[in-house]
Amino acid sequence: MAKEVEIKFRIGAALAVTRALKRVGFKRITASTHEMNVLYDLPGQKLRARGDMLRLRKYGERWTLTHKSKHTTRRHKARVERETRIEDGKQMDGILRALGSCPAFRYEKYRAEWSDGKGHVVVDQNSDWRLWRDRRLPALDRSEPRKP
Asked: Rg of the chain over CA atoms, in angstroms?
């Protein structure tokens, strides 16, 4: 069980950020990769109401299921994160639905990961992301979105 501390910044130009990361010794560990995320909730948004989050993510060809607990409000958001790899995301979607969870929110983006051996930085590009807040979300076998 890991404790995640997350700090987010809105940036205007990803190229300028990647150049700055290189200047201070960061190396790209993954190229910009398509990521699809679906957040699940129980009827009445019970998970959201108590500050929990349940997410099924496809990053490239890798699927993960993540639970994040209610965050503590300090200078930076911190919360306990439990995550596991999933072999078949479409089957996991079916399991979650069979247990009464419903897709509540969906978003897509492209993510590149950087590290200097001590820290980890992700650069997300989501200028063309699509959001859905509909209990009748489409199946998870959608075609790839356009790259931003």
From this structure: 16
Distance CA(94)–CA(77), nearest Å, equals 31
**Statement: the pTM of the whole predicted model exceeds 0.85:** no
User: How far, in Å, CA of 90 to CA of 55, rounded?
Assistant: 13
Give the whole-angstrom CA distance, residue 57 versus residue 37.
4
Beta bridge partners of 83: 66
Residue-wise pLDDT tens digits, 82-138: 999 999 999 999 999 999 999 999 989 888 899 999 888 888 887 544 444 333 344
Give the C-alpha separation, 21 to 79, whole Å.
26
Q: Which residues contact 10 (CB under 8 A, 6 or more apart)?
A: none
Taking the C-alpha atoms of residue 107 and residue 22, their distance in angstroms, rounded to an integer, is 28
**Backbone angles phi and psi of 81, in degrees to 5:** -125, 130
Question: Among 147, 138, 144, 143, which Cα is nearest to 38's?
Answer: 138
Contact 86, 92 (CB under 8 A): yes
Residues 6+ apart with CB under 8 A from 38: 55, 56, 57, 93, 103, 105, 106, 137, 140
Q: Pairing relation of β-strands 77-86 and 2-6?
A: antiparallel
